[in-house]
Amino acid sequence: VEATDIAFRGVPARRARVTMELNRNLMDFRDGEVEFDYRNYPLRQAHGGPLTGHASVDLIQYDRGKSVVNVRNLKGEAWPAPIVRTFAPKIADRLESYGFHSNPGLVADGVIGIRDGRPKQDLTVRFGTNHPADYDFLGTTLRLDSPRGTVRVLADKVRVSDLRLGLFGGLLRGGLEFPMGAESITGEVDWTSVSLPSICRAYGFRTEPNGRLTGRLDFNLDRRDVSGLNGDGHVALEGGELFEVPIFGPLSPVISAVLGNRKAGFQEASDAFCTFGIRKGIFSTLDFATQTSSLVFTGDAKVDLPEKTMQMTVRMNARGLLGVLTLPLRPFYGMFQFRGTGPIEKPDWDNVMFTSPPEQQEKTLLEPPKARVVPQRQGGPGTRDVLERVDARADVVAVAEGQVAQVG
Prior knowledge:
- The protein is mainly beta and 408 residues long.
- The protein contains six helices and 25 strands.
- The chain has a 21-stranded antiparallel sheet that branches. Strands 22-23-25-24 form a four-stranded mixed sheet, with no helix packed on it.
- The relative contact order is 0.08.
């Protein structure tokens, strides 16, 4: 059969050709080719791109007895949702959330169940494009550069693996899982050299401090807003201006007043590191660490991401700075403590009485270690070994394939 200017299940095509065999229990469509018509496709109208897409397939077979559709070697350059809509409309609805700006390269194989529950469903789609795509995350539409990966559609979930894309000027890798019929997402991602100013612009912060972030996160999101976010991870800042960041900017004059030296509070702190946890949108850390040429800082914090408020304690080691003599009780002489509370954009900082630091901070604050391993869960897409080396002079984040390290 060959036809021109047709539409099937609302999907228009300029032409289509297939060899088919039909009987009571089976419908075989072999050696098929189709040229899709994208003139009225919403994603093309929103972003531009070609007016047509092409796809070919070795076999699409409807097996009535098993209530499945078998797909063998479907490939081409086409938006995925219109292709899948021709034989599995419910799955196509899910694929529409990936807002490709142009038709990506696709290869698909597997089985699609058409009975309720789809117990035998297992369709794998591999995709890749040099054009961007859009994806809504935590209320913001993110631009994903050159995305590629593998989507596996099972009976009860959709898995995205081997994901690799550009984001905020850096690289993101990982894997995600979406249960069928639910708004939740589970996944693990790692990111390298992501622009801090770009993140601030995307999520509406009024200031855009310099710096790049590298780290990883295991997470689950049980609804599409930040109050449903849970996870664990670690993050490092490289090449930043930490005391220009909204959280720490108001701390600079407080440090200067305590030390009696204006320049002390405005020294450059360009690198930082912490491990963290997130529970129902509440971010917490016990081992935040950064330093300038003469000051060492550690901290612990809780940040309410939905409310955009924070509570943070920062401890400062000023021993040896300008001959300062303070708090003669060893081992904490030359130590100061600051407390910040209020909105993330501009918290209030005060100098408070020094208290013994948590175990996670004490060694870094008093005697910075030369090296320590940062533990993380092993296995699964996106997992990388991470080694932290903290030098007493400065922290500089070095990134290599499969490794994130802090080296002096």
